[in-house]
Amino acid sequence: MNTIKTYYKLLLTAFTLLSFFTANSQTQTVDLTGKWRFQTDVMDFRRGSLSPRYNHELQGEIQLPGITDDYQIGYKVPYKYIDRLTRKYEYLGPAWYQRDFEIPQAWKGKQIFIYFERTSWLSSIYVDTKEVSKNDYVSVPHNHNLTAFLKPGKTHRITVCIDNRFQYNTHKWDHAHTEFTQINWNGILGEMKMIAVDPVYIEDLQVYPNISEQSIDVKMDLANPTGKPISGSIKFNVAGKNYKLDKVMKVSGKDSLIHFEGKISLGKQIKLWDEFQPNLYTLSCKLSSDVEGARFEHEKTATFGMREVKQGKNHVLINNKPVHLRGNVENAVFPKTGYAPVKEDEWERIMQLMKKYGLNHLRFHSWCPPDAAFRMADKYGIYFQVEMPMWGRDAEPDEARYNFFRREMIAILKEYGNHPSFVLYCNGNEITGNFDFIEELTAKGRLRDNRHLFCGSTARTRVKSDQFYVSQQTNKGPVKVYEGLPYTNWDVSQQSDVDVPVISHESGQRAVYPNFEEIKKYANSPVEARNFEVFRELLEKNGMLDQANDFFKASGALTVVEYKAVVEALLRSGKSAGFQLLSINDFPGQGYASVGILDPFWDSKGLISPEKWREFCGPTVALLRYAKSAYFNDEVFQGDAELYNFSPSGLKNAKIKWLLKDESGKMIKQGGLKTQTLGTDGVFPMGKFTFDLKDIKKAEKLTVSVVVNDTIKNNWNIWVYPRNENLLTTTADVLYTTVFDDQAKQKLAAGGKVVLTPFPEQVQGRKSIFHNHFWNPIMFAWPPMTIGCLIHKEEPVFADFITANHTDWQWWDILNNAKVIEMKDAQQALRPFIQVIDANDKNEKLGIGFEALVGKGKLLVLAVDTKKDMDKRPATRQLLKSIDTYVKGDQFNPKVTVDERFIQSFMVKQFENKP
Amino acid sequence: MKKITYIILFLAFLSSKGFAQEIQFDKQASVDQGYLKSQESANLLPMNELNVETGYALYLAEINLSVENPMLSLENVRDYAVVFLDDKLQGTLADQHKQLALKAGPGKHKLQIYVENIGRITYGPEILDNSRGLFGSITLGKDEIEDWMITPIKIKNLEVSKLIFEQRKSSSLPCFFKAEVNLSQPSAYYLDISGWGMGEVWVNGTYVGAYWEEEKQQSIQIPSEALKAGQNEIVVFELKNLEQKNMKLSKQAVFR
């Protein structure tokens, strides 16, 4: 015990000394990071029944900043949660953190604060035996004013209670404190400090840029708890790259809170801030005041950018220039730490990745990130939409909850309002309840701060004060784009054209099969992918573990195909304000939505390179409208080229060409479009072109490219097929049939070959759909409940059908006219050549096409409609042609045997009309 | 100043404020022009089983009442239903209120329920249930109503130019209405739908949007490209407020 006391005394001496070393003018700061005494309080029998009332020394220890999970405190979770990552140690309740401090004698007369950058959710501070301060903000730092309770020269015992239980009845999914993405942690993060300032100090500093005047309006609240009149001056310094300006203004007043406003002209050399030129400036304000002979000083700084945001007709205007928001939804997905980073390095990496993937916008869904995120977005030029912890029924009447939201909104605007990256504010996600309350908040926000645009709720009822709208639909129709189509002559422009700019809500959401290699990435995380273990076991049980990586890659490739189509459709929509992809990174909750091209750690899954992604997602993108992806070779391709250009400038005398190449990269045709000057801030027609496909004699995959000035290039795959007139022709060798009848059975029994192409309505099982599942099959258990297809392209059956090992747009007419056969009762060795990837929580063997031995006979089954609209289905015809050549040749030698009962098991039962 | 000067000034003021132009709907077309193939069923069928992804359907049954004013109770309605008895509006049903007292005496009656579905459930305890329209049990008092005729109705993708309109008369069932409005110069407007119930709007044959009286938003933006100088045709499909005669063209968006 003695040793411990000595240790603390030493520590205290160190802190007291340190405070002098870090003193800045008359402000003094003590760093509070390090070792704290600690105690859990799971029972929370009676607040205060614990030690503080008795000045009891807590016996445990914890290192701060940190969270209880870091020290394996709490309930050791034995379960494997299926719908999310599993937290290894859960702690929910009050936890107590304690330290003793000697308050320096020199702090006499100063205002003393304890500041925690982020806690969750209620922090209350006990000085010695009394609770003296409480704070329940979620989105901003907790700054406790303890002046009245700390006596300079005395050693105080500071006990902090952090209570991470829900302080108000808000939605459990709110990303600010959900277990689904980050975890509902208990701890203290980021900067932790004790600050002593002179009693006249700058409480609030807000900078309002005026770009036409090239000035800033500075609005300050000066706290004056002295109760006496003050007079003095504020020395302003504006500093930036090659820029420096000083200005002094007089200030006086007598109130306890003195409001100060002043204008600073910045001159012509000041530069604007936007995504392309994120020029930043720092405003330092040094307040010197005299109060009855005493002189006080306090300094506060703010980083700002010269930018204004306005509501345009269809777009958000940054400095009066329309921007198109290419965004990602950020859902507090931080499995590495279990909480959102408070330091700059991780946010810097994220902002760099945003730029790398051609994005300029992040929506923080039902939460608001820490300051470091804003700082890095300011630096890299990313436009933020931030929200409160508000979702679903949070707007249903509940006065305590309403008052929390009222406080929280003002706190967010005050804390982060100066950041130029803070462009959009929305109360929360998909809100239901009392929209008079939502309008009240929105109107209040608008009135208070013109540095942001305001919106009531995403994807729900509109309110009068909306300045933009994020939704899957307007009253003019759907603006969501969740999936592509095998043609591109469409957009959502008309539906986006309402009274405010419309941003397409949560675009994409196409599921990728989980990558079980990610399991090992959680070794040092507070969470684990135990659901992946369950999925993997299921796959192993069903004999397909060796295919896990193929499923991941094939479904991932389809998601990339979909995202290219989704993003381009939204870029073609000239009257859309932008989109928010859900999401470029995986969402590890709500059933686990592995919809990203990056994993939950923002690491690439290797599905597409950033360079390739930027061809269709960036400030300038070449677009092409065309009517279909699969053609007969007696048809003509017609393309309509457009340029999406939201770069800083137009393209003067742009040289535009189109190219047609075959799969080996050989040029087949090319042509030029009229050299022209193209504008900026819109989607511009570049001209039409056509080419005849009659020279394509055999089935081919071709790539059409549009190239502008040799630097802007985008590509689209098309497939060209011969007419393949004589299909499904039964010969002495091969029987084609749509029914598994006696004739087919006899043929097989005789050792013959049978191709069975049953009508989809005659096959039991799920309907086949081209698209991979939306979001994830656990949360949304609706069709298709499949995650794309693995195509065994190396099989000889595909010799005349060009395909990758995943599905692309040529598969559209095949898959949308097919049925998914459940094959779990067939031998494990049987692998369908068109293998459908099952929902990852079921993992059964599924197929559309397979071959097998039935007795001595050879059977090929293709559960595709081969009769309907066959003159409009060139790819299906080509697949049948490829199958025909295969079955009539000598390579058709199925290895695995099934019996007749298996075939009958997936056919719809027929009632035989026997007399 | 003379009175006429006041009037001129007043008119000038109104035009500068974009005085809302009245539109009178004086033609109507019956909803059955949008009916698709009907299906008979002993019990309610969700729209999914009629191959309707989203949109409108009519559920029709003949009922025989033994008591006066019985209570109609529905197990599931996705998302909105308007109930008519013998071609008379009785009220509406939605997830929050799934009961309605019918105003009728004993005897045989024709029960017609027009239902609109606007999409999937993506939230809440029913999240895994993907059914739309009416399904589950439907009762009058304690008796299950059986023998339904269910008819999907093509509304949103309808070619309204092919509808056959007649002079407006009193209509008590959901109906299409048509108005002609003369504009000297096309420009962007907001169509003020205040007073109307729930429905869809087309301008010169192009679909322009939907409305619902319970939304705060009470107008649909009409882009200038949708309008032309001279006669313009506005078609509305209205589910329930069938006495409405007028809408207005306003320069500002209208919110409640």
From TrEMBL, chain A:
InterPro entries assigned to the protein according to its UniProt record, in alphabetical order: Galactose-bd-like_sf (IPR008979), GH (IPR017853), GH2_Domain-Containing (IPR051913), Glyco_hydro_2_cat (IPR006103), Glyco_hydro_2_N (IPR006104), Ig-like_fold (IPR013783), Ig-like_GH2 (IPR006102)
Domain Glycoside hydrolase family 2 immunoglobulin-like beta-sandwich, which positions?
Answer: 200-307
Q: Which GO terms describe its biological process?
A: carbohydrate metabolic process
The record's section on Pfam families has: Glyco_hydro_2, Glyco_hydro_2_C, Glyco_hydro_2_N
Q: Which residues cross the membrane?
A: none
Q: Which UniProt keywords apply?
A: Hydrolase, Signal
Q: Where is the Glycosyl hydrolases family 2 sugar binding domain?
A: 90-167
Domain Glycoside hydrolase family 2 catalytic stretches: 313-438
Protein family according to the UniProt entry: Belongs to the glycosyl hydrolase 2 family.
Sorted alphabetically, which PANTHER family does this protein's record hold?
BETA-GALACTOSIDASE, BETA-MANNOSIDASE
What's the protein called, per UniProt? Glycosyl hydrolases family 2, TIM barrel domain
Q: Which organism is it from?
A: Pedobacter rhizosphaerae
UniProtKB/TrEMBL annotation, chain B:
Instruction: Give the signal peptide as a residue range, or say none if absent.
Output: 1-20
Residue ranges of the TM segments = none
Pfam families reported in the protein's UniProt record = BetaGal_ABD_1, BetaGal_gal-bd
Its GO biological process annotations read:
carbohydrate metabolic process
Residue ranges occupied by any Beta-galactosidase 1-like first all-beta domain in the UniProt entry: 46-153
- Report keywords, A-Z: Glycosidase, Hydrolase, Signal
Q: Which PANTHER family match?
A: BETA-GALACTOSIDASE RELATED
| Protein name (Swiss-Prot/TrEMBL) | Beta-galactosidase
Report the source organism: Pedobacter rhizosphaerae
